[in-house]
Specification:
This protein is 34% helix and 22% strand. The chain has 302 residues and is an alpha+beta fold. The protein folds into three domains: 10-100; 115-143, no CATH class; 159-301, no CATH class. The termini are far apart.
Length: 302
């Protein structure tokens, strides 16, 4: 049977409870840790602090042993109080084991995380459906909401940088579709889901069919900015900027998609293909060209 090391909480002359231990003792130095319970008027507000220090063993002129700080500058003694002490505990608990094993990247798991879900989590990380992974992380509180917000903002910043880079290249429409698919947030908060189905019928295939916030079906149509499509006509009409034929054709195509969707609104097969999303008075958002070279009058006319 192992030895029992009975710990005793003592009280200082100032009435502060403390618990003392020696972390490491060498012939010339000694390292100590002391827990302090700092009282407040309301006992619920009492703080726990820890003092860590490394000291030199020395003797005075009477050959009596005593200890002094190993170094004064920087001081080899430090006290952590309250929240900073708790933060230190959390940091060690969450990070010591993976760090000591040489792991380069890891996500600290919340204490409420059920280890039995680990296999499910691993499969989710391997799943290309990122939305399901995000939902799983939020549902099981794997990472704090504040940290998730930071990750979300960083991912949006990276997406914008990618978007700016794509504007400089002659990307195909497929690449733009992929970017909008991965970053549907840029379409606005009124759209909650991009549907897997893109076809209205065999003759009409949209870029995206989307579920709006109100639960109804809408359409997104993209005309890539590098497609040499013009927004404004080359000449004015009665001193006014007027739409180019390219834009008129795109608007006509979008209008036709709306018409064809309305024709399918009573089709059970169509409703099944779009997952039961309601189809009443659909709208179409047309993403067309660029405005980076517009003059002030063109912006005003828009």
């Amino acid at each position: 049977m192992g030895n029992i090391n009975l710990k005793e909480v003592k009280t200082s002359k100032g009435g502060i409870d403390y618990l003392h231990t020696i972390l490491l003792e060498k012939p010339q130095t000694i390292t100590k840790a002391t827990l302090w319970r700092i009282p407040h008027n309301n006992p619920e507000n009492n703080e726990i602090a820890v003092k860590l220090g490394r000291y030199k063993k020395t003797k005075n002129i009477f050959n009596q042993s005593f200890e002094e700080l190993e170094t004064a500058i920087p001081k080899s003694e430090l006290t952590f109080k309250g929240l900073e002490f708790q933060a230190l505990i959390n940091f060690i608990q969450q990070n010591y084991e993976p760090f000591s094993k040489g792991i380069q990247k890891f996500i600290p798991l919340d204490e409420n995380f059920d280890v039995s879900n680990l296999k499910h989590l691993q499969s989710f990380f391997a799943n290309p459906d990122k939305q399901k992974l995000v939902e799983y992380i939020l549902e099981h509180n794997i990472i704090p909401n504040e940290l998730f917000i930071v990750f979300n903002n960083l991912s949006k910043i990276q997406a914008i940088k990618q978007f700016e880079g794509m504007l400089e290249n002659d990307n195909t429409e497929q690449k733009w579709q992929n970017w909008f698919q991965q970053n549907s947030w840029v379409l606005g908060s009124e759209y909650v889901e991009i549907l897997d189905e893109r076809s209205i019928d065999t003759q009409n295939i949209t870029d995206f069919l989307v579920k709006a916030y109100d639960g109804f079906l809408d359409i997104i149509e993209i005309k890539r900015p590098e497609g040499h499509l013009s927004f404004w006509n080359n000449s004015k009409d009665h001193n006014n900027y007027v739409p180019h034929q390219d834009l008129i054709k795109a608007i006509t195509q979008a209008s036709k998609y709306i018409y064809e969707v309305e024709r399918e609104m009573d089709s059970n097969k169509f409703r099944e293909r779009i997952g039961g999303v309601k189809t009443i008075k659909p709208r179409c958002v047309l993403i067309f060209g660029r405005s980076n070279k517009w003059n002030d009058e063109q912006k005003e006319k828009l």
